[in-house]
Amino acid sequence: MRTAVTAPSAEELKRQNDIMLKIKRINDGLPERPKFFINTFGCQMNAHDSEKIDGMLRQMGYLPETEEKKADFIIYNTCCVRENAENKVYGNLGYLKHAKKEKPNMKIALCGCMMQQETVIETIRQKYKHVDIVFGTFNLYKLPELIYANMKSKSQIFDIWDEHADIVEDLPMVRKYKFKASVNIMYGCNNFCSYCIVPYVRGRERSRRPDDIINEIKALAADGVKEVMLLGQNVNSYGKGLDENITFADLLRFVNDIDGIERIRFMTSHPKDLSDELIASMAECKKVCRHIHLPFQAGSNEILRRMNRHYTKEYYLELIDKIRKAMPDIAITTDIIVGFPGETPEQVAETVDVVKKARFNGAFTFIYSKRTGTPAASMPEQVSEEDAKKGFALLLDAVNPIVEELNTQKVGRIYPVLVDGISSDPEYVTGRTDDNTLVHFKGGKELIGEILDIKITECKTFYLIGEKIQ
Ligand code: SAH
Ligand code: SF4
Ligand code: F3S
Fold it and tell me: Domain for residue 166, yes or no?
Protein backbone atom coordinates (compact mmCIF):
# COMPACT_ATOMS: atom_id res chain seq x y z
CA MET A 1 0.00 0.00 0.00
CA ARG A 2 1.09 3.53 -0.70
CA THR A 3 0.44 6.68 1.25
CA ALA A 4 -1.14 9.32 -0.90
CA VAL A 5 0.69 12.48 -1.66
CA THR A 6 -1.40 15.55 -1.14
CA ALA A 7 -2.10 16.60 -4.68
CA PRO A 8 -3.53 19.99 -5.59
CA SER A 9 -7.03 19.04 -6.69
CA ALA A 10 -7.27 21.30 -9.73
CA GLU A 11 -4.00 20.14 -11.25
CA GLU A 12 -4.68 16.49 -10.58
CA LEU A 13 -8.17 16.72 -12.03
CA LYS A 14 -6.87 18.37 -15.18
CA ARG A 15 -4.43 15.51 -15.61
CA GLN A 16 -7.23 12.96 -15.25
CA ASN A 17 -9.43 14.99 -17.61
CA ASP A 18 -6.72 14.89 -20.28
CA ILE A 19 -6.49 11.10 -19.92
CA MET A 20 -10.28 10.84 -20.12
CA LEU A 21 -10.12 12.60 -23.49
CA LYS A 22 -7.43 10.21 -24.73
CA ILE A 23 -9.53 7.20 -23.73
CA LYS A 24 -12.62 8.74 -25.31
CA ARG A 25 -10.75 9.12 -28.59
CA ILE A 26 -9.73 5.46 -28.44
CA ASN A 27 -13.33 4.38 -27.71
CA ASP A 28 -14.68 6.70 -30.43
CA GLY A 29 -12.44 4.90 -32.92
CA LEU A 30 -13.81 1.43 -32.14
CA PRO A 31 -16.48 -0.15 -34.39
CA GLU A 32 -18.77 -0.30 -31.33
CA ARG A 33 -18.47 1.57 -28.07
CA PRO A 34 -17.60 -0.67 -25.12
CA LYS A 35 -20.49 -1.11 -22.64
CA PHE A 36 -20.06 -0.88 -18.87
CA PHE A 37 -21.92 -2.31 -15.90
CA ILE A 38 -21.35 -1.28 -12.26
CA ASN A 39 -22.36 -3.69 -9.51
CA THR A 40 -22.56 -1.79 -6.22
CA PHE A 41 -22.42 -3.49 -2.84
CA GLY A 42 -22.77 -1.83 0.55
CA CYS A 43 -24.08 1.48 1.76
CA GLN A 44 -25.17 4.80 0.26
CA MET A 45 -21.61 6.03 0.40
CA ASN A 46 -20.66 3.33 -2.11
CA ALA A 47 -23.79 3.94 -4.19
CA HIS A 48 -22.77 7.58 -4.42
CA ASP A 49 -19.20 6.66 -5.41
CA SER A 50 -20.69 4.51 -8.17
CA GLU A 51 -22.48 7.59 -9.53
CA LYS A 52 -19.05 9.22 -9.87
CA ILE A 53 -17.57 6.15 -11.59
CA ASP A 54 -20.58 6.12 -13.93
CA GLY A 55 -20.02 9.80 -14.76
CA MET A 56 -16.34 9.28 -15.53
CA LEU A 57 -16.96 6.20 -17.70
CA ARG A 58 -19.55 8.01 -19.83
CA GLN A 59 -17.13 10.91 -20.32
CA MET A 60 -14.59 8.36 -21.53
CA GLY A 61 -16.98 7.16 -24.21
CA TYR A 62 -18.27 4.00 -22.56
CA LEU A 63 -22.00 3.23 -22.82
CA PRO A 64 -24.13 2.10 -19.86
CA GLU A 65 -25.45 -1.48 -20.00
CA THR A 66 -28.14 -2.82 -17.67
CA GLU A 67 -27.23 -6.51 -17.92
CA GLU A 68 -23.91 -7.59 -16.48
CA LYS A 69 -23.40 -10.41 -18.94
CA LYS A 70 -23.70 -8.10 -21.95
CA ALA A 71 -21.10 -5.64 -20.64
CA ASP A 72 -17.51 -5.32 -21.86
CA PHE A 73 -16.29 -3.49 -18.77
CA ILE A 74 -17.54 -4.74 -15.39
CA ILE A 75 -16.85 -2.84 -12.18
CA TYR A 76 -17.58 -4.18 -8.72
CA ASN A 77 -17.74 -1.47 -6.09
CA THR A 78 -17.34 -3.63 -3.01
CA CYS A 79 -18.25 -3.58 0.70
CA CYS A 80 -16.61 -5.38 3.61
CA VAL A 81 -18.73 -4.41 6.58
CA ARG A 82 -19.83 -8.04 7.05
CA GLU A 83 -18.39 -11.30 5.76
CA ASN A 84 -21.38 -12.11 3.55
CA ALA A 85 -20.81 -8.90 1.57
CA GLU A 86 -17.31 -10.15 0.74
CA ASN A 87 -18.47 -13.66 -0.05
CA LYS A 88 -20.89 -12.33 -2.64
CA VAL A 89 -18.03 -10.57 -4.44
CA TYR A 90 -15.84 -13.68 -4.46
CA GLY A 91 -18.78 -15.77 -5.68
CA ASN A 92 -19.47 -13.39 -8.56
CA LEU A 93 -15.77 -13.24 -9.47
CA GLY A 94 -15.74 -17.01 -9.85
CA TYR A 95 -18.57 -16.73 -12.34
CA LEU A 96 -16.80 -13.92 -14.23
CA LYS A 97 -13.78 -16.14 -14.74
CA HIS A 98 -15.89 -18.36 -17.02
CA ALA A 99 -17.58 -15.41 -18.69
CA LYS A 100 -14.19 -13.90 -19.54
CA LYS A 101 -13.02 -17.14 -21.17
CA GLU A 102 -15.88 -16.75 -23.64
CA LYS A 103 -15.28 -13.03 -24.06
CA PRO A 104 -11.52 -12.44 -23.70
CA ASN A 105 -11.75 -8.67 -24.32
CA MET A 106 -13.86 -8.21 -21.23
CA LYS A 107 -12.31 -5.94 -18.59
CA ILE A 108 -12.96 -6.37 -14.88
CA ALA A 109 -12.26 -3.70 -12.26
CA LEU A 110 -12.67 -3.97 -8.49
CA CYS A 111 -12.86 -1.02 -6.13
CA GLY A 112 -14.43 0.07 -2.85
CA CYS A 113 -13.94 -0.78 0.79
CA MET A 114 -13.04 -4.46 0.46
CA MET A 115 -9.99 -3.54 -1.65
CA GLN A 116 -8.49 -1.57 1.22
CA GLN A 117 -7.56 -4.80 2.99
CA GLU A 118 -4.17 -6.32 2.27
CA THR A 119 -5.42 -9.90 2.65
CA VAL A 120 -8.01 -9.27 -0.06
CA ILE A 121 -5.39 -7.83 -2.42
CA GLU A 122 -3.20 -10.89 -1.85
CA THR A 123 -6.13 -13.22 -2.60
CA ILE A 124 -6.90 -11.36 -5.82
CA ARG A 125 -3.25 -11.44 -6.92
CA GLN A 126 -3.10 -15.18 -6.35
CA LYS A 127 -6.53 -16.53 -7.22
CA TYR A 128 -8.28 -14.00 -9.43
CA LYS A 129 -5.80 -13.25 -12.18
CA HIS A 130 -8.67 -12.43 -14.55
CA VAL A 131 -9.23 -9.12 -12.72
CA ASP A 132 -7.68 -6.22 -14.69
CA ILE A 133 -7.81 -3.15 -12.44
CA VAL A 134 -8.00 -2.85 -8.65
CA PHE A 135 -8.26 0.45 -6.77
CA GLY A 136 -9.51 1.59 -3.39
CA THR A 137 -11.68 4.18 -1.70
CA PHE A 138 -9.17 7.04 -1.66
CA ASN A 139 -8.24 7.25 -5.35
CA LEU A 140 -11.51 6.87 -7.22
CA TYR A 141 -10.73 9.97 -9.25
CA LYS A 142 -7.68 8.23 -10.74
CA LEU A 143 -9.82 5.73 -12.64
CA PRO A 144 -8.98 7.26 -16.08
CA GLU A 145 -5.25 6.88 -15.43
CA LEU A 146 -5.68 3.28 -14.28
CA ILE A 147 -7.79 2.32 -17.30
CA TYR A 148 -5.24 3.93 -19.59
CA ALA A 149 -2.34 2.13 -17.89
CA ASN A 150 -4.17 -1.18 -18.32
CA MET A 151 -4.87 -0.45 -22.00
CA LYS A 152 -1.18 0.19 -22.57
CA SER A 153 0.36 -2.59 -20.47
CA LYS A 154 -2.39 -5.24 -20.68
CA SER A 155 -1.25 -6.32 -17.22
CA GLN A 156 -3.08 -6.27 -13.88
CA ILE A 157 -3.08 -2.79 -12.36
CA PHE A 158 -3.22 -2.39 -8.58
CA ASP A 159 -3.42 1.06 -7.02
CA ILE A 160 -4.41 1.10 -3.36
CA TRP A 161 -3.66 4.00 -1.05
CA ASP A 162 -3.77 3.78 2.70
CA GLU A 163 -4.78 7.37 3.26
CA HIS A 164 -6.60 10.10 1.45
CA ALA A 165 -5.25 12.86 -0.73
CA ASP A 166 -7.02 16.21 -0.78
CA ILE A 167 -10.75 15.95 -1.10
CA VAL A 168 -11.36 15.97 -4.84
CA GLU A 169 -14.17 18.28 -5.94
CA ASP A 170 -16.07 18.44 -9.22
CA LEU A 171 -15.84 14.87 -10.50
CA PRO A 172 -18.31 14.20 -13.30
CA MET A 173 -21.29 12.36 -11.93
CA VAL A 174 -24.37 10.63 -13.31
CA ARG A 175 -27.19 10.69 -10.80
CA LYS A 176 -29.44 7.70 -10.56
CA TYR A 177 -32.47 9.96 -10.07
CA LYS A 178 -33.22 13.37 -11.57
CA PHE A 179 -35.21 14.61 -8.58
CA LYS A 180 -33.18 13.37 -5.62
CA ALA A 181 -29.47 13.22 -4.97
CA SER A 182 -26.86 12.26 -2.42
CA VAL A 183 -24.22 14.74 -1.35
CA ASN A 184 -21.10 13.81 0.61
CA ILE A 185 -20.56 16.21 3.47
CA MET A 186 -17.71 14.26 5.03
CA TYR A 187 -15.59 11.18 4.46
CA GLY A 188 -14.14 8.57 6.79
CA CYS A 189 -14.76 7.82 10.44
CA ASN A 190 -12.83 8.34 13.69
CA ASN A 191 -15.03 6.38 16.02
CA PHE A 192 -13.46 2.95 15.88
CA CYS A 193 -16.45 1.00 17.19
CA SER A 194 -14.66 -2.21 18.14
CA TYR A 195 -16.56 -4.43 15.66
CA CYS A 196 -16.38 -2.13 12.66
CA ILE A 197 -13.98 -2.11 9.73
CA VAL A 198 -15.14 1.17 8.17
CA PRO A 199 -12.50 3.43 9.86
CA TYR A 200 -9.76 1.16 8.49
CA VAL A 201 -11.04 1.17 4.92
CA ARG A 202 -12.42 4.70 4.66
CA GLY A 203 -9.72 6.53 6.60
CA ARG A 204 -9.88 9.42 9.05
CA GLU A 205 -12.81 11.74 9.30
CA ARG A 206 -12.62 14.83 7.12
CA SER A 207 -15.33 17.35 6.30
CA ARG A 208 -15.93 19.04 2.99
CA ARG A 209 -15.88 22.82 3.01
CA PRO A 210 -19.38 24.29 3.53
CA ASP A 211 -19.12 26.46 0.38
CA ASP A 212 -18.39 23.41 -1.76
CA ILE A 213 -21.40 21.60 -0.28
CA ILE A 214 -23.76 24.56 -0.63
CA ASN A 215 -22.67 25.26 -4.20
CA GLU A 216 -23.15 21.61 -5.14
CA ILE A 217 -26.66 21.62 -3.66
CA LYS A 218 -27.57 24.91 -5.37
CA ALA A 219 -26.49 23.41 -8.69
CA LEU A 220 -28.54 20.27 -7.96
CA ALA A 221 -31.60 22.41 -7.15
CA ALA A 222 -31.14 24.31 -10.42
CA ASP A 223 -31.06 20.93 -12.15
CA GLY A 224 -34.46 19.90 -10.71
CA VAL A 225 -33.42 18.07 -7.54
CA LYS A 226 -36.04 18.32 -4.78
CA GLU A 227 -34.57 16.01 -2.15
CA VAL A 228 -30.97 15.82 -0.94
CA MET A 229 -29.42 13.17 1.27
CA LEU A 230 -26.39 14.49 3.18
CA LEU A 231 -23.95 11.62 3.60
CA GLY A 232 -21.30 10.84 6.21
CA GLN A 233 -20.48 8.00 8.59
CA ASN A 234 -21.09 10.33 11.49
CA VAL A 235 -22.71 13.53 10.26
CA ASN A 236 -23.07 14.91 13.79
CA SER A 237 -19.36 15.61 13.99
CA TYR A 238 -19.41 17.60 10.72
CA GLY A 239 -17.14 20.65 10.76
CA LYS A 240 -14.38 19.38 13.04
CA GLY A 241 -10.98 20.23 11.60
CA LEU A 242 -12.29 22.87 9.15
CA ASP A 243 -11.01 26.46 9.23
CA GLU A 244 -14.61 27.65 9.26
CA ASN A 245 -16.40 27.52 12.59
CA ILE A 246 -19.42 25.42 11.59
CA THR A 247 -21.46 22.54 13.00
CA PHE A 248 -23.86 20.10 11.36
CA ALA A 249 -26.74 22.09 12.88
CA ASP A 250 -25.47 25.22 11.06
CA LEU A 251 -25.06 23.30 7.81
CA LEU A 252 -28.68 22.10 7.97
CA ARG A 253 -29.84 25.71 8.32
CA PHE A 254 -27.81 26.75 5.27
CA VAL A 255 -29.17 23.89 3.17
CA ASN A 256 -32.69 24.68 4.39
CA ASP A 257 -32.35 28.14 2.83
CA ILE A 258 -31.59 26.85 -0.67
CA ASP A 259 -34.49 27.59 -3.05
CA GLY A 260 -35.84 24.59 -4.93
CA ILE A 261 -34.77 22.01 -2.34
CA GLU A 262 -37.91 20.69 -0.68
CA ARG A 263 -36.64 17.82 1.44
CA ILE A 264 -33.40 17.30 3.36
CA ARG A 265 -32.32 13.91 4.70
CA PHE A 266 -29.07 12.83 6.28
CA MET A 267 -27.28 9.75 7.48
CA THR A 268 -25.80 8.49 9.70
CA SER A 269 -26.05 10.05 13.15
CA HIS A 270 -24.02 8.71 16.04
CA PRO A 271 -25.99 9.04 19.29
CA LYS A 272 -22.96 10.24 21.26
CA ASP A 273 -22.56 13.36 19.12
CA LEU A 274 -26.21 14.32 18.72
CA SER A 275 -26.40 17.79 20.26
CA ASP A 276 -29.36 19.78 21.58
CA GLU A 277 -28.39 22.37 19.00
CA LEU A 278 -28.94 19.81 16.23
CA ILE A 279 -32.35 18.83 17.59
CA ALA A 280 -33.31 22.52 17.66
CA SER A 281 -32.03 23.03 14.12
CA MET A 282 -33.94 20.00 12.81
CA ALA A 283 -37.15 21.16 14.50
CA GLU A 284 -36.75 24.68 13.11
CA CYS A 285 -35.86 23.72 9.53
CA LYS A 286 -39.10 22.85 7.78
CA LYS A 287 -37.40 21.07 4.89
CA VAL A 288 -35.55 18.64 7.16
CA CYS A 289 -37.49 15.36 6.95
CA ARG A 290 -39.09 13.99 10.06
CA HIS A 291 -36.88 10.93 10.15
CA ILE A 292 -33.65 10.11 11.92
CA HIS A 293 -31.58 6.97 11.60
CA LEU A 294 -29.93 6.55 14.98
CA PRO A 295 -28.15 3.21 15.39
CA PHE A 296 -28.08 1.97 19.00
CA GLN A 297 -26.38 -1.42 18.26
CA ALA A 298 -26.96 -3.09 21.65
CA GLY A 299 -29.00 -2.64 24.83
CA SER A 300 -26.51 -3.82 27.43
CA ASN A 301 -24.23 -1.14 28.87
CA GLU A 302 -21.42 -3.65 29.21
CA ILE A 303 -21.67 -4.60 25.51
CA LEU A 304 -21.93 -0.93 24.49
CA ARG A 305 -18.76 -0.23 26.48
CA ARG A 306 -16.94 -3.07 24.78
CA MET A 307 -18.26 -1.89 21.42
CA ASN A 308 -16.62 1.48 22.18
CA ARG A 309 -19.87 3.30 21.52
CA HIS A 310 -19.48 5.95 24.30
CA TYR A 311 -23.09 5.97 25.51
CA THR A 312 -25.38 3.94 27.73
CA LYS A 313 -28.81 2.46 27.22
CA GLU A 314 -30.26 5.14 29.54
CA TYR A 315 -28.58 7.97 27.60
CA TYR A 316 -29.93 6.58 24.32
CA LEU A 317 -33.50 6.27 25.59
CA GLU A 318 -33.40 9.81 27.03
CA LEU A 319 -32.02 11.11 23.75
CA ILE A 320 -34.88 9.72 21.69
CA ASP A 321 -37.34 11.12 24.25
CA LYS A 322 -35.82 14.55 23.73
CA ILE A 323 -36.01 14.17 19.94
CA ARG A 324 -39.67 13.13 20.09
CA LYS A 325 -40.55 16.01 22.42
CA ALA A 326 -39.06 18.46 19.93
CA MET A 327 -40.63 16.72 16.89
CA PRO A 328 -43.59 14.55 17.90
CA ASP A 329 -44.17 13.22 14.37
CA ILE A 330 -40.57 12.06 13.81
CA ALA A 331 -39.81 8.48 12.75
CA ILE A 332 -36.78 6.89 14.39
CA THR A 333 -35.00 3.94 12.80
CA THR A 334 -31.95 2.08 14.01
CA ASP A 335 -29.25 -0.56 13.50
CA ILE A 336 -28.82 -3.45 15.92
CA ILE A 337 -26.10 -6.10 16.20
CA VAL A 338 -26.64 -9.45 17.95
CA GLY A 339 -23.95 -11.95 18.82
CA PHE A 340 -21.16 -9.50 19.69
CA PRO A 341 -18.35 -11.44 21.46
CA GLY A 342 -19.39 -12.45 24.96
CA GLU A 343 -23.03 -11.33 24.57
CA THR A 344 -25.26 -13.41 26.86
CA PRO A 345 -28.98 -14.17 26.41
CA GLU A 346 -29.64 -11.72 29.29
CA GLN A 347 -27.82 -9.01 27.37
CA VAL A 348 -29.83 -9.78 24.23
CA ALA A 349 -32.94 -9.37 26.43
CA GLU A 350 -31.71 -5.84 27.23
CA THR A 351 -31.55 -5.09 23.51
CA VAL A 352 -35.12 -6.38 23.17
CA ASP A 353 -36.06 -4.11 26.09
CA VAL A 354 -34.66 -1.04 24.26
CA VAL A 355 -36.61 -2.03 21.14
CA LYS A 356 -39.84 -2.20 23.17
CA LYS A 357 -39.21 1.09 24.95
CA ALA A 358 -37.92 3.01 21.94
CA ARG A 359 -40.64 1.75 19.56
CA PHE A 360 -38.63 2.09 16.36
CA ASN A 361 -40.31 2.75 13.01
CA GLY A 362 -37.79 0.40 11.44
CA ALA A 363 -34.62 -1.45 12.33
CA PHE A 364 -31.81 -3.12 10.44
CA THR A 365 -30.73 -6.10 12.50
CA PHE A 366 -27.39 -7.78 11.89
CA ILE A 367 -25.68 -10.86 13.20
CA TYR A 368 -22.20 -9.86 14.38
CA SER A 369 -19.58 -10.65 11.74
CA LYS A 370 -15.96 -11.00 12.77
CA ARG A 371 -13.77 -8.52 10.84
CA THR A 372 -10.05 -9.26 10.88
CA GLY A 373 -8.04 -6.36 12.24
CA THR A 374 -10.77 -4.93 14.46
CA PRO A 375 -10.45 -5.16 18.28
CA ALA A 376 -13.59 -7.30 18.61
CA ALA A 377 -12.13 -9.98 16.33
CA SER A 378 -9.63 -10.95 19.02
CA MET A 379 -12.05 -10.77 21.94
CA PRO A 380 -12.57 -14.13 23.62
CA GLU A 381 -15.96 -15.88 23.72
CA GLN A 382 -17.09 -15.39 20.14
CA VAL A 383 -20.80 -16.30 20.21
CA SER A 384 -21.83 -19.45 18.34
CA GLU A 385 -23.81 -19.08 15.15
CA GLU A 386 -26.70 -20.96 16.69
CA ASP A 387 -26.94 -18.60 19.70
CA ALA A 388 -26.61 -15.54 17.48
CA LYS A 389 -29.45 -16.82 15.29
CA LYS A 390 -31.65 -17.36 18.33
CA GLY A 391 -30.99 -13.79 19.48
CA PHE A 392 -31.65 -12.51 15.96
CA ALA A 393 -35.05 -14.25 15.85
CA LEU A 394 -36.01 -12.81 19.25
CA LEU A 395 -35.14 -9.35 18.04
CA LEU A 396 -37.21 -9.61 14.87
CA ASP A 397 -40.14 -10.79 16.98
CA ALA A 398 -39.78 -7.62 19.02
CA VAL A 399 -39.16 -5.18 16.15
CA ASN A 400 -41.74 -6.26 13.56
CA PRO A 401 -45.03 -5.98 15.52
CA ILE A 402 -44.06 -2.46 16.61
CA VAL A 403 -43.26 -1.42 13.03
CA GLU A 404 -46.64 -2.80 11.95
CA GLU A 405 -48.47 -1.06 14.78
CA LEU A 406 -46.87 2.31 13.99
CA ASN A 407 -47.56 1.95 10.28
CA THR A 408 -51.19 0.90 10.91
CA GLN A 409 -51.71 4.20 12.76
CA LYS A 410 -51.09 5.96 9.46
CA VAL A 411 -54.14 4.43 7.75
CA GLY A 412 -56.74 7.12 7.00
CA ARG A 413 -54.22 9.98 7.15
CA ILE A 414 -52.84 12.03 4.27
CA TYR A 415 -49.09 12.32 3.63
CA PRO A 416 -47.05 14.10 0.99
CA VAL A 417 -45.16 11.40 -0.94
CA LEU A 418 -42.19 11.93 -3.26
CA VAL A 419 -42.76 9.41 -6.07
CA ASP A 420 -39.54 7.66 -6.98
CA GLY A 421 -40.40 4.76 -9.28
CA ILE A 422 -42.73 2.14 -10.67
CA SER A 423 -43.73 -0.63 -8.28
CA SER A 424 -43.37 -4.35 -9.11
CA ASP A 425 -47.04 -4.13 -10.11
CA PRO A 426 -46.76 -1.77 -13.14
CA GLU A 427 -50.11 -0.12 -12.35
CA TYR A 428 -48.60 1.23 -9.14
CA VAL A 429 -45.88 3.71 -8.30
CA THR A 430 -43.81 3.88 -5.11
CA GLY A 431 -42.56 6.75 -3.05
CA ARG A 432 -41.59 7.87 0.42
CA THR A 433 -43.36 9.99 2.98
CA ASP A 434 -41.46 12.71 4.77
CA ASP A 435 -40.84 10.19 7.59
CA ASN A 436 -39.39 7.73 5.06
CA THR A 437 -42.23 5.20 5.00
CA LEU A 438 -42.61 3.39 1.68
CA VAL A 439 -46.00 3.94 -0.01
CA HIS A 440 -47.47 2.25 -3.09
CA PHE A 441 -50.40 3.79 -4.95
CA LYS A 442 -52.06 3.57 -8.37
CA GLY A 443 -50.38 5.76 -10.95
CA GLY A 444 -48.09 5.96 -13.96
CA LYS A 445 -44.52 6.91 -14.59
CA GLU A 446 -45.41 10.53 -15.36
CA LEU A 447 -45.79 11.01 -11.60
CA ILE A 448 -42.15 10.13 -10.87
CA GLY A 449 -40.37 13.05 -9.23
CA GLU A 450 -43.58 14.72 -7.97
CA ILE A 451 -44.53 15.29 -4.36
CA LEU A 452 -48.22 14.36 -4.08
CA ASP A 453 -50.76 14.13 -1.25
CA ILE A 454 -51.60 10.47 -0.70
CA LYS A 455 -54.32 9.10 1.54
CA ILE A 456 -53.20 5.90 3.25
CA THR A 457 -55.73 3.09 2.88
CA GLU A 458 -53.93 -0.03 4.05
CA CYS A 459 -50.86 -1.14 6.03
CA LYS A 460 -48.75 -4.07 4.76
CA THR A 461 -46.38 -4.21 7.78
CA PHE A 462 -43.30 -2.65 6.15
CA TYR A 463 -45.04 -0.49 3.56
CA LEU A 464 -48.35 1.28 3.00
CA ILE A 465 -50.95 1.32 0.24
CA GLY A 466 -52.57 4.65 -0.56
CA GLU A 467 -54.53 6.62 -3.10
CA LYS A 468 -53.97 9.94 -4.75
CA ILE A 469 -56.12 12.80 -3.50
CA GLN A 470 -57.79 14.35 -6.54
N1 SAH B 1 -21.50 4.82 10.42
C2 SAH B 1 -22.75 4.24 10.55
C3 SAH B 1 -22.96 2.86 10.01
C4 SAH B 1 -21.92 2.11 9.32
S5 SAH B 1 -22.12 0.43 9.00
C6 SAH B 1 -23.07 4.24 12.00
O7 SAH B 1 -22.26 4.24 12.87
O8 SAH B 1 -24.23 4.17 12.26
C9 SAH B 1 -23.84 0.11 9.15
C10 SAH B 1 -24.18 -0.85 10.23
O11 SAH B 1 -23.56 -2.10 10.02
C12 SAH B 1 -23.75 -0.45 11.62
O13 SAH B 1 -24.60 0.49 12.22
C14 SAH B 1 -23.76 -1.77 12.35
O15 SAH B 1 -25.01 -2.05 12.91
C16 SAH B 1 -23.48 -2.79 11.25
N17 SAH B 1 -22.15 -3.38 11.38
C18 SAH B 1 -20.96 -2.76 11.30
N19 SAH B 1 -19.96 -3.66 11.50
C20 SAH B 1 -20.55 -4.86 11.71
C21 SAH B 1 -20.05 -6.18 11.98
N22 SAH B 1 -18.76 -6.42 12.11
N23 SAH B 1 -20.95 -7.19 12.13
C24 SAH B 1 -22.27 -6.95 12.02
N25 SAH B 1 -22.79 -5.74 11.77
C26 SAH B 1 -21.94 -4.70 11.63
FE1 SF4 C 1 -18.33 1.95 12.04
FE2 SF4 C 1 -18.82 3.06 14.36
FE3 SF4 C 1 -17.72 4.52 12.43
FE4 SF4 C 1 -20.25 3.75 12.22
S5 SF4 C 1 -19.41 5.14 13.78
S6 SF4 C 1 -18.70 3.63 10.63
S7 SF4 C 1 -20.25 1.74 13.20
S8 SF4 C 1 -16.81 2.80 13.47
FE1 F3S D 1 -20.27 1.30 3.27
FE2 F3S D 1 -19.63 -1.25 3.29
FE3 F3S D 1 -17.78 0.55 2.95
S4 F3S D 1 -21.13 -0.30 4.56
S5 F3S D 1 -18.47 2.38 3.98
S6 F3S D 1 -19.51 0.12 1.60
S7 F3S D 1 -17.60 -1.26 4.18
Answer: no
Can you say how many angstroms the Cα of residue 368 is from the centroid of all Cα atoms in its chain? 19
DSSP β-bridge partners for residue 332? 292
Asked whether the predicted pLDDT for residue 5 surpasses 70, the reply is: no
Query: Which residue puts its alpha carbon closest to atom 1 of ligand 2?
Result: 196
Separation of alpha carbons 446 and 163, rounded Å: 45
pLDDT one-digit tens code per residue, 35-60: 999 999 999 999 999 999 999 999 99
Of 407, 426, 442, which residue sits at a domain end? Answer: 407
Ligand 3 pocket residues where CB is under 6 Å: 42-43, 45-46, 79-81, 113, 198, 201-202
Cα 80 from Cα 1, distance rounded (Å): 18
Beta bridge partners of 366: 337
Do both 155 and 270 map to the same domain? no
pLDDT one-digit tens code per residue, 405-418: 999 999 999 999 99
> Reduced to 3 states, what is the DSSP secondary structure of residue 112?
strand
Query: pLDDT band for position 377 (50/70/90)?
Result: very high
- Ligand 1 atom 19 nearest Cα: 196
